[in-house]
Design brief:
six-stranded mixed beta sheet; four-stranded antiparallel beta sheet; 7 helices; binds 2-acetamido-2-deoxy-beta-D-glucopyranose; oxidoreductase activity, acting on single donors with incorporation of molecular oxygen, incorporation of two atoms of oxygen; Intradiol_dOase_core; Intradiol_dOase_C; Intradiol ring-cleavage dioxygenases domain-containing protein
Length: about 375
């Protein structure tokens, strides 16, 4: 991502990538992951109906027979969290919500999707990226700001793997790189990290240290929004670009408890129950690689884009590992007739709503 850094990263990365598959996660982490995946398996039918009904909703609203890109104003509200009267947050689950969800799940026929086992359940991984932030992101659905790129609508379902039910009213925080691989707030590393080298051991092997934000005014491609009563949250964004060592991805955290900072419409983090990342199919990444402004990525002709299977954090490979199989890859549909008209990407996250993870990097 930082061109000056790419030169020394180049040599180190090839070494770390070949070793990445042999890097064990801690026993504790594996145990958590196994437990959650086991729990997620029995949710597969619930996830299937959850996804099917979301697809139908999309088809009705935007996709079927409409060759034009819908104005996303029509799809997603542009209001901020503060505009929503009596918006619920930070409260225990309302029993009425649970009733609704039960009805929602039971009434949805499983017909138009074919999901094998828990294919679309995203089990967690607890590895965070270096572009953290110690303050909560803006509470908003449209995170694109002025960033140039391919329109990407995200439809993220959250399901509690303990109850196999969609989770309403949890805050889903996402952040991602822009089309040329930069994160808001990190144009350069903080001075004390200028000479840092990627870690050579441990879970952060091949990665640079976490960089605190240096430009606090930048907020592009960062935002959080609570799930609705059906456990779904939608965002308007752009397709992420790539940077050194990482496959194209979107970060996420899920907070069952949080507070609003009304003065600046950001959130104050409470209990954290999930940290994860979403990926895209290689075939789609290859198509986007050729589009403007993605092909202007400064590392295009040097290191190039890291493939899913080469990801230095090994997240993609882990998802297909012996602990089970989960699928951290968005299912993507075209909004119009061609890719350049935009995409809608679905995923369902399996989270443990009662878990509490250490928010040590706060991002
Ligand atoms: C899903 O996969 C798990 C682990 O491989 C297996 O135990 C379970 O029986 C599978 N469930 C179905 C419905 O195939
Ligand atoms: C991505 O962000 C960086 C840093 O703010 C900026 O220099 C670059 O122009 C942005 N990329 C695009 C395609 O706008
Ligand atoms: C928003 O306001 C809160 C509470 O005053 C403060 O702690 C936080 O740093 C502010 N966030 C930003 C991004 O300014
Ligand atoms: C969910 O988290 C709770 C609290 O940490 C834990 O007791 C429980 O075993 C977890 N459930 C699964 C399926 O991992």
């Amino acid at each position: 991502m930082f061109s000056a850094w790419n030169f020394f990263l180049f040599g180190l990365l090839s070494a770390s990538q070949s070793l990445a598959h042999h890097t064990p996660r801690s026993e504790h982490e594996l145990e958590i992951q196994r437990g959650l995946q086991a729990a997620a398996y029995h949710c597969a039918p619930a996830v299937e109906s959850f996804t099917a009904s979301r697809k139908r909703a999309w088809a009705q609203r935007a996709l079927a027979g409409n060759p034009n890109v819908p104005g996303y104003q029509q799809l997603f509200s542009s209001e901020t969290y503060g505009d929503i009267a009596d918006a619920p947050h930070n409260s225990p689950h309302n029993p009425h919500d649970s009733d609704d969800d039960e009805t929602f799940m039971k009434c949805t026929p499983i017909s138009d999707t074919h999901i094998q086992n828990n294919t679309c359940v995203l089990a967690p991984e607890v590895t965070e990226g270096p572009y953290y932030h110690d303050q909560g992101h803006p509470i908003r659905q449209n995170i694109a700001e002025y960033q140039d790129g391919l329109l990407l609508l995200l439809d993220i379902g959250v399901i509690d793997v303990e109850a196999c039910k969609p989770l309403p009213n949890v805050l889903v925080d996402i952040w991602q790189a822009n089309a040329t691989g930069h994160y808001a707030g990190h144009p350069v590393p903080a001075p004390q990290f200028i000479n840092e080298k990627p870690a050579t051991t441990g879970l952060r092997k091949g990665l640079l240290p976490p960089f605190p934000r240096t430009l606090h005014a930048e907020t592009f491609l960062r935002g959080a929004w609570p799930t609705d009563k059906n456990g779904v949250v939608q965002f308007t964004s752009i397709y992420p670009g790539y940077y050194t060592g990482r496959a194209t991805h979107v970060h996420t955290k899920v907070f069952p408890e949080w507070q609003v900072n009304p003065e600046n419409n950001t959130y104050k983090a409470g209990r954290l129950s999930h940290v994860g990342q979403f990926f895209f199919d290689e075939e789609l990444n290859m198509v986007v690689d050729k589009m403007f402004p993605y092909f202007t990525n400064p590392i295009k002709d040097t290191i190039g884009r890291t493939r899913n299977t080469q990801d230095s954090l090994n997240i993609f490979a882990d998802s297909h590992g012996p602990e089970g199989q989960y699928n951290p890859v968005f299912k993507v549909h075209l909004l119009g007739g061609v890719v350049s008209q935009g995409l809608v990407a679905y995923i369902t996250m399996g989270v443990n709503a009662s878990a509490s993870y250490d928010n040590f990097l706060k991002g």
